[in-house]
Design a protein that fits this description.
Elements: H1 2-18, H2 24-32, E1 37-38, H3 41-44, E2 48-54, E3 58-64, H4 67-71, E4 76-85, E5 91-94, E6 112-117, E7 129-138, E8 148-158
Parallel strand pairs: 1-4, 6-8
Antiparallel strand pairs: 2-3, 4-5, 4-7, 5-6, 7-8
Amino acid sequence: MIKNIVIGVYCSLAVLLMSFSTNSTSKTTIYSKQKPTEVTWKLLGQIDFVKRKNPHYGEVMYPMVNGTLKALQGKKIKASGFIVPIDSKSYALSKNVFAQCFFCGNAGPETIMGIKFKGNTPRLKTDTYVTMEGTFRYNADDIDDWIYHIENAVITHQK
């Protein structure tokens, strides 16, 4: 009889203590429900360049990303723009339509973001205007890569 009472007390105590424990899934849910920060092309355009030596290309202009964008590194963002095909398997998000993007027109490299989609890459038409959410990443060192990226991207609106 005493053995059953002791077991009952231990079980009750265990249930009581578990009710005070934090639930790790609730933290994930709270994080995933946080509103993404909207990143505008005006903000992305607030960038300076500095000339530095590069072992492969000689003197090259490297981007100096502003503090506001540095603070967004790895954070959830929202951005809108035009779809520009890069090759048969990848796209970029551009401030301008294809004919005016930086490698075809008069804009600079800060007017485009590399896209890495969450899951499979969808088939998209050139110059489709989309709004995306994903994780922001900037690149200030690799001149063979985009300055700005949106990773784990999901299209939330498409025209």
